[in-house]
Amino acid sequence: MRWAAPIVVLVVLCTLAVGWIPGWPDQVGNAFGVVAGALAVFGFKTVLRRNEDLVSAHTENAQLLVDNERNRFARDLHDILGHSLTVITVKAELAQRLIDVDPARARDEINDLERLSRDALADIRRAVEGYRELTLPGELARARTALSAAEIAPRIPQSTDEVPTELRELFAWSVREGITNVIRHSGARRCEIRLSPSSVTIRDDGEGPGCDLREGSGITGLRERAAAVGATVTTRTLSPGFSLEVSRA
Questions:
Q1: Under a CB-based contact definition with an 8 Å cutoff, are residues 28 and 10 in contact?
Q2: Angle of helix 26-98 relative to helix 165-181, nearest 10 degrees?
Q3: Which residue, of 4, 110, 179, 227, has the fewest CB within 10 Å?
Q4: CA gyration radius for the chain?
């Protein structure tokens, strides 16, 4: 506390004055010393209380940091596993349907299952190690594979050159989340991804997510990522279809 030190100095000076200055009234000096001493004790107690509050605040801040990191990690695992497991499930169902009709294609789908599971494992390892390395071209390629496996006709841009560096990771997460929702919820026959220097849009011709798309899952995590770079997430119900747009003005 700023005035604790001056109080201590005042107490010391009063004590010296009572003992050394001739004619200093003993009664007045003693009374003043008692008052000053009481103020000093109060000041010290206030300093101790403030220190306790400071330690408590530091502990609370540390806990908040841990909670935020835990939430970030959980969000990343949701985004990674949600997409990967959805694609793996779709391919497994397709392979099962093809195993008697077209064994060669069924074998190809099973090989893709192995590759996708290895990719998912690598993504999880990167997340555990603290890396969040997504590439926009890689997510577009995965989107094409996943949509084709789900028998949804993809329309996907060939180039990502016009997207600025600071938006590429956000757009990659947007493609991953949007395509996962299209495959899971839409019942679409066609899906289109549109890219511009300031936006990415995932649009399908299905029935829309209905009540299955809930804030608090991947969309909430995507909103948080977008807000971190000054972008916004907009969802629209079309007739027919659904669109997810992430843009920055």
A1: no
A2: 60
A3: 227
A4: 32
